[in-house]
């Protein structure tokens, strides 16, 4: 966080977080209830970005946004990858390229093979002989 916030913003972030904790959050920011009198009630949960959009639309008494510094932090946190599927896919591709007979391939060779494979996949619809 030292590269994301300066010292003043870190102090303001603590104040903003405490103000956020004390903010009354309506239930309809996180979920909706559906159903008729004859049907059972169903709860639909809203996406997290919709929730934070509501939070960041809260204004102070002067009309300015209340959670400016908190918005900066949340946007950075939401941009972080929350899965490892891309990494696992890369390991799987490498496992197919580097067999026992080709175990001594250099890093450049593996990168070249993966680039070629990606090019064939992109430009030739996955078929190398078209």
Automatic annotation (TrEMBL):
The protein, known as: HAT C-terminal dimerisation domain-containing protein
Organism: Adineta ricciae (Rotifer)
């Amino acid at each position: 966080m030292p590269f994301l916030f300066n010292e003043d913003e870190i102090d303001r972030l603590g104040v903003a977080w405490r103000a956020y904790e004390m903010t009354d959050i309506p239930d309809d920011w996180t979920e909706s209830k559906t159903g008729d009198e004859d049907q059972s009630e169903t709860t639909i949960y809203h996406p997290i970005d919709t929730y934070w959009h509501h939070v960041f639309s809260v204004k102070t008494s002067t009309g300015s946004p209340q959670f400016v510094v908190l918005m900066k932090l949340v946007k950075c946190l939401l941009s972080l990858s929350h899965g490892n599927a891309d990494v696992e896919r890369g390991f799987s591709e490498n496992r197919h390229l580097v067999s026992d007979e080709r175990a001594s391939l250099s890093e450049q060779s593996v990168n070249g093979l993966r680039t070629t494979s990606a090019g064939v996949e992109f430009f030739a619809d996955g078929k190398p002989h078209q």
